[in-house]
Write a structure and sequence with these properties.
By secondary structure, the protein is of the alpha+beta class. Strand 11 and strand 12 form a beta hairpin. Helix 7 packs across helix 21 (1052-1102), helix 11 (502-569) packs across helix 17 (738-826) and helix 12 packs antiparallel against helix 17.
Length: 1308
């Protein structure tokens, strides 16, 4: 058992924070005595804090620690150190440190380092001292384990605080919480609720898991079907791919052969295009020739002569252009100079304007200065400055005289200000002296009035006291007679006590009580022996009751389910075979339902395949149409004009041939025209037609030839070559579009019609498949509805059958347990039963209570006589004390009458003095008023003079500042020579105006020269054009002849024969190519369709990834969850029964102890006994207990709360704590009682002391039993000491510094 060794306290409550107070706990009892407020309860608070970590009630904010203000410190550190023996015998040490600090907002408390460690004495046993923990939470949890009790028992039973000592009679909710914590019912009920909640959740989860298992089984079946379809599709795709590759190879060979034939057979088309291009080119040349002859005047001479004239003409024009550019540069330079001169002219004009404005402002300021000087001289009477203009020397002289005047006015103003200040100081000094004299007189008058009031109040109080003392003499005489009577009564009471012989009679009763207590202890020992078998008997009864309950449940289930069972099975249900029969029927129904679902699934599969094929075909049609539109758009974008590809290729070939011939024919034409132009100009004759040219035709001839030269120049030839390159690129691009055109035609004529035929066929087959699937689905649904009721009934019966089987197994197990218990009880027997021993105990208890009541009656009579003696002695002492008080009051009355006469005379003297002071105060006030009037009049005159002087000074200062500003501006104008700058600026403006006129004349001359050169250049353009026209006409004539020769050289007969051969064979071969393409495209479409189906099937199969593993895992999970739920149900029932039994045994044990202690201690006859009544609330699923303390009288129970006195509450609380400690503190023999005698009368105090002595004597042989009693009752201490249960006790008191100290004293 656990026990306490020593407690050290420092800085807690009133204990000193500079030294440690130590208390050692004795066994079996430790008594702590002290006056109220000495610090006794602090010991219990420290024990509770050391073991639980909880501070006393209402101590937040540092009230538990010694006040820093009392210690004159800003911070106080406290420590509680406890050394104790744990329940396992280990010696432990716990140290808890705290501190409180004074701050501006108040006290701040914090917890410092805490230590739980092995104590030093373990070293002697070979152990090591070491800290177990330093964390508060861990220490608070570990110490109750070491002491062998729960924290709630430590708080509410062992170390209960004095303020909480009445908790057993608290309100029901608080009482329930306390008892639930002590019984630890909350922990077990929470565990039970947790088990039930867990099982409920798991049952729900199991139901969901079973549904998931069924779903996974269906998914597994579907996944197996998908894998079969994938294998079939892979085999089909492999065969189709072989066929596709062979067809594709044959198609590619046919395409190559047709392409070679097309290239060889279409050469005739190039010849046709070439001839057509040459014809067009020839016609083009003729049109150009006719147009050129209309606008050109023909010139004679050879082509070389015309070309020479053109080359020389260009050189003359170039010379004229050079001269014109030179003139243009000169003109531009002159214009730049003119712009620069005009900008400078504008800047000078602006500057001249500014200087002119400054000159005008200068003249105006001089006039203002002279006017200001005249004004100032007139106002201040300064002579000699009224004429104008004023010389500079006069102005300087005036400024000097004005400064002297300024200084004089400032001096006069300062003198007036100084005089005013001196008069103010003199007035303040005189006024202060007069006020000091006046205040002195007023203070004397106030003191005199206060003295009069004090004496009048004292007289009134003394007269009132004298009035109250008028009857003191008669009262003193009456009191003397009462004292004599009280002394006679005391003598009589003492004589009655001597004749009563109470002590001897009480000793006889005590001996009888001890004898009966011994008999009761013997019976209790015998009853405890029988209680060991009571547990086995209780278990046997419980097992038999469970067997009956299980059998009844099984019978009820069979009766309820028999009708449904007979309907499904055809015979009555039997407990042994019920579950097997239901499982068999369930399997048969599942197989029937599975067959119907398989037929419906097969029909749905066929319908789904048809819909999938139709959907895929429609998708193929859509994609082919999209591809066709895309190809048509591509051809349309590449071919301009909206013509077909064949026409576009034919047109491009003709254009290319024509431009090639044109480029070839243009070689040398330019030189021919140049020679024609030269000859025409030289000889006045066109060498091309050998015709003479007149002067009026010459211009047109030259113009036409020049245009022809330009058209047949190397630049024009290069442009034609570029066009040839463009047409070659265009033809190449068009031929590259032939595969696109072929693909488009194949899709339009072959693939789309085939797909549309397939869709039409599938649309015709779909209604029959849909009707077949709908019929199968209807049959499956009908069968499902038909069997759903049977399946639900089977599921219900399956659950009932499972319950019946489980009950059967549990019944067999319980019968085996019953047989074992019966064998065990038969081996031991006894003559008496527990009830017989209990009846003997009840009879003996009644005799003990009767003897105790007789003893209490004797003690009550003895105590009554003692109380009566003490009361009379106290009354006599009070009377004697009152007699002395009355004598003193009579002497005080005579003294007061003499003081009244003296104070009346003093009041009259003070009244005369008060009148004299009033007249003196009136006389002292008159000089003060006169002085104030004189000072105010003088201040008015001085203020007027000062204001006038200040105004004059300010006005003069303003004029002086204005004059200074004007002088500074005038001087700056003269110093900067601004007038000279004005003259220079005017001269510069005249010079720039002359320069501008000269520049304008030069620019006009340059412009006239440039215009003349431009006219000469423009007139030479027409001559140049005529020369070019003649050269061009001669070149066009030569081109026409060359083109005609080339046309005559072409073989048109061979081209016609090749054309006929192409038209006969090409369409036949092209048709074969199209058919082969359609065939191989159809096979490719079938492969794509199968591949798409394969992808969709594989995608569906991916949704069932790891389905076999998930199905197996889910099956295992369902089986394990079902077994775990059954185990949880069994465990919950066992725990619930154990909690009920434990609670009942503990309550019976506590109530038995309470009944024994109450009958032994309580001396009254109004209550036979007390007990704790626990009422069960809630059903089996949620059970809780409500507690109340009841008292019994004549077998009637009443709630003790609100019906008992303070003494009964205290005694009941102590007894309940003793009983709870005995039941729940078996491993901890410690119990602390703080002021147990509060509110108890003398008889109950003595009875409590005797009960505690009995408990101590009964358990003093237990080495770890410790009872700690704190009291201020010296009689209670004496009773305990006389019983020889202790040798030493501890006294707590306050020293001279009001600090609590603990001293050990020996009981004498």
């Amino acid at each position: 058992m656990a026990s306490l060794d020593k407690l050290a306290i420092r800085g807690i409550r009133s204990f000193d924070d500079k030294q440690i107070s130590v208390i050692e706990f004795f066994s079996p009892v430790t008594v702590i005595v002290g006056h109220n407020g000495s610090g006794k309860t602090t010991v219990i608070e420290c024990l509770k804090y050391a073991t639980t970590g909880d501070q006393p009630p209402n101590t937040r904010g540092g009230a538990f620690i010694h006040d820093p203000k009392m210690a004159n410190e800003k911070e106080v550190k406290a420590q509680v150190k406890l050394r104790f023996h744990a329940a396992n015998g280990t010696r432990m040490l716990v140290v808890r440190n705290l501190s409180v600090t004074v701050k501006k907002t108040g006290l701040t408390m914090k917890t410092l380092e805490n230590i739980l460690a092995l104590a030093d004495s373990n070293i002697e046993k070979g152990g090591k001292r070491g800290a177990i923990s330093t964390k508060c939470a861990e220490i608070d949890t570990e110490i109750p384990h070491l002491l062998g009790v729960s924290k709630s028992v430590l708080e509410n039973v062992i170390f209960c605080h004095q303020e909480d000592s009445y908790w057993p009679l608290a309100e029901p909710s608080a009482l329930k919480k306390k008892f639930d914590d002590i019984f630890e019912a909350t922990r077990y009920s929470k565990a039970l609720d947790s088990i039930k909640s867990l099982r409920k959740d798991r049952v729900s989860d199991l139901k969901a898991d079973k549904e998931r298992l069924e779903s996974l089984a269906k998914e597994k079946t579907h996944a197996d079907k998908l894998r079969g379809r994938i294998s079939d599709l892979n085999a089909t795709i492999t065969g189709k791919q072989l066929q596709y590759e062979e067809t594709k190879k044959r198609y590619e060979e046919l395409v190559k052969n047709n392409a070679r034939f097309y290239e060889s057979a279409t050469q005739f088309r190039e010849l046709y295009v070439k001839v057509e291009n040459l014809q067009q080119k020839k016609e083009h040349y003729r049109q150009e020739l006719s147009e050129a002859k209309e606008s050109v005047q023909e010139v004679g001479g050879t082509d070389e002569e015309l070309q020479e004239r053109l080359s020389n003409f260009g050189q003359n024009i170039e010379k004229e252009k050079v001269a014109r550019n030179r003139r243009e540069v000169e003109r531009q330079d002159l214009e730049d100079e003119l712009a620069k001169a005009r900008r400078s002219h504008v800047e000078l004009i602006n500057e001249h304007g500014e200087l002119a404005a400054e000159a005008k402002a200068h003249d105006r300021r001089i006039s203002e200065r002279e006017e200001l000087i005249c004004d100032i001289s007139d106002k201040n009477n300064i002579k000699g400055y009224n004429h104008t203009p004023l010389e500079l020397e006069k102005v300087i002289e005036f400024v000097s005289r004005l400064g002297d005047l300024q200084r004089r006015q400032r001096s006069e103003f300062d003198k007036l200000q100084t005089g005013r200040n001196s008069k103010n100081d003199d007035h303040s000094r005189k006024l202060r002296l007069l006020h000091t004299e006046l205040e002195s007189l007023r203070m004397q008058r106030g003191n005199t009035r206060e003295q009069i009031k004090e004496r009048q109040a004292a007289i009134t109080k003394a007269e009132s006291s004298i009035d109250t003392m008028q009857g003191l003499a008669s009262e003193l005489r009456t009191l003397a007679g009462d004292i004599e009577e009280k002394k006679l009564r005391l003598e009589k009471i003492k004589a009655d006590m001597q004749t009563g012989n109470f002590d001897e009679r009480l000793n006889v009763k005590a001996a009888k009580a001890r004898s009966m207590e011994d008999q009761r202890d013997t019976l209790n020992t015998e009853l405890r022996g029988l209680s060991l078998q009571a547990e086995s008997r209780a278990r046997l009864d419980l097992k038999r009751a469970e067997v009956r309950s299980k059998t009844s449940d099984t019978k009820n289930i069979l009766e309820l389910c028999n009708v449904k069972f007979r309907k499904l099975i055809g015979r009555d249900a039997r407990a042994e075979t019920m579950e097997r029969d239901i499982d068999r029927v369930s399997r048969e129904k599942d197989e029937e339902l599975t067959g119907a679902e398989a037929e419906a699934a097969a029909a749905n599969k066929e319908l789904q395949q048809a819909e999938t094929t139709l959907s895929h075909a429609k998708y193929e049609v859509k994609s082919k149409r999209d591809e066709l539109k895309k190809l048509e758009k591509q051809l349309k974008d590449e071919i301009e004009g909206g013509v077909s590809l064949e026409i576009a290729i034919s047109f491009a070939e003709r254009e290319l041939e024509m431009r090639k011939e044109y480029v070839e024919s243009k070689a040398g034409v330019s030189q021919v025209y140049e020679q024609i132009l030269k000859a025409g100009q030289a000889k006045k004759r066109c060498t091309a037609c050998n015709r003479g040219l007149h002067d009026n035709e010459m211009a047109g001839f030259e113009k036409y030839v020049c245009e022809q030269i330009k058209n047949h120049s190397p630049e024009a030839v290069e442009a034609q070559k570029a066009e040839v390159s463009q047409w070659e690129s265009e033809l190449k691009d068009l031929r590259a579009l032939m595969p696109v055109f072929t693909t488009k035609e194949r899709i339009r004529t072959v693939e789309l019609p085939a797909l549309e035929r397939q869709i039409k066929s599938l649309d015709e087959e779909l209604p029959s498949n849909s009707e077949k699937a709908e019929q199968a689905r209807y049959l499956c649904h009908f069968f499902t509805l038909e069997t759903s009721l049977d399946i639900r009934e089977i599921a219900s019966l399956k659950q009932s059958a499972s319950t019946v089987s489980r009950n059967q197994n549990e019944t067999e197990r319980l019968k085996s347990d019953i047989k074992n218990l019966e064998t065990e009880l038969a081996a031991t027997g006894t003559a008496k039963t527990g009830d017989d021993v209990q009846r003997e105990l009840d009879v003996l208890s009644n005799e003990i209570r009767s003897n105790e009541r007789e003893r209490q009656a004797l003690m009550t009579e003895r105590d009554h006589q003692n109380q009566l003696l003490r009361t009379n002695e106290n009354d006599l002492h009070a009377m004697e004390k009152k007699e002395s008080t009355l004598s003193n009051q009579i002497r005080d009355k005579d003294i007061m009458e003499e003081r009244i006469v003296t104070m009346t005379n003093e009041i009259a003297t003070l009244h005369s003095k008060l009148k004299e002071l009033d007249s003196k105060i009136s006389e002292a006030q008159a000089p003060i008023d006169m002085l104030e009037q004189e000072h105010q009049q003088a201040m008015v005159d001085l203020d007027a003079r000062i204001r006038e002087a200040q105004r004059s000074v300010q006005e003069l200062n303003t004029n002086v500042d204005k004059l200074d500003n004007l002088n500074k501006i005038v001087e700056r104008y003269i110093r900067e020579k601004r007038a000279h700058l004005l003259v220079e600026c005017a001269d510069k403006i005249e010079q720039f105006e002359q320069d501008i006129k000269d520049l304008v004349t030069n620019i006009e001359n340059a412009r006239d020269a440039i215009a003349k050169i431009d006219r000469e250049i423009s007139e030479s353009g027409s001559l140049m054009a005529n020369l070019h026209g003649n050269i061009r006409i001669r070149k066009l004539s030569r081109d026409i002849a060359a083109t005609q020769a080339e046309i005559d050289s072409c073989d048109m007969e061979g081209a016609a024969k090749a054309k006929r051969n192409f038209e006969d064979r090409y369409q036949v071969e092209k048709q074969r190519e199209t058919e082969m393409q359609s065939k191989y495209a159809h096979i490719g479409g079938e492969i794509s369709s199968h591949q798409e189906q394969l992808k969709m099937t594989e995608k569906d199969l991916r949704d069932f990834k790891d389905i076999n593993k998930r199905y197996t895992d889910q099956l295992v999970k369902v089986k394990m969850s079902d077994m775990a739920n059954n185990d949880l149900e069994k465990y919950a029932k066992a725990l619930d029964n154990a909690i009920m039994k434990y609670h009942g045994l503990k309550m019976e044990e506590v109530n038995d102890t309470m009944r024994h202690l109450w009958n032994k201690t309580y001396q009254g006859t109004d209550i036979d006994g007390i007990k704790i009544r626990s009422d069960v609330e809630g059903g089996a699923s949620k059970r809780s207990y409500n507690y109340r303390v009841v008292m019994t009288k004549d077998q009637v129970e009443m709630d003790m709360r609100g019906r008992c006195s303070a003494g009964q509450k205290m005694l009941a609380s102590i007894i309940i704590r003793l009983a709870l400690s005995d039941s729940f503190g078996q491993n901890c023999g410690i119990l602390a009682l703080d002021e147990p005698t509060n509110a108890l009368d003398v008889e109950n105090i003595d009875a409590l002391a005797e009960s505690l002595v009995d408990i101590i004597n009964e358990r003093k042989n237990h080495s770890n039993f410790q009872l700690i009693i704190i009291t201020h009752d010296e009689n209670f201490l004496r009773k305990l000491g006389q019983a020889e249960v202790m040798e030493y006790y501890w006294r707590v008191s306050r020293d001279s510094r009001q600090k609590s100290v603990i001293e050990r004293q020996r009981f004498r």
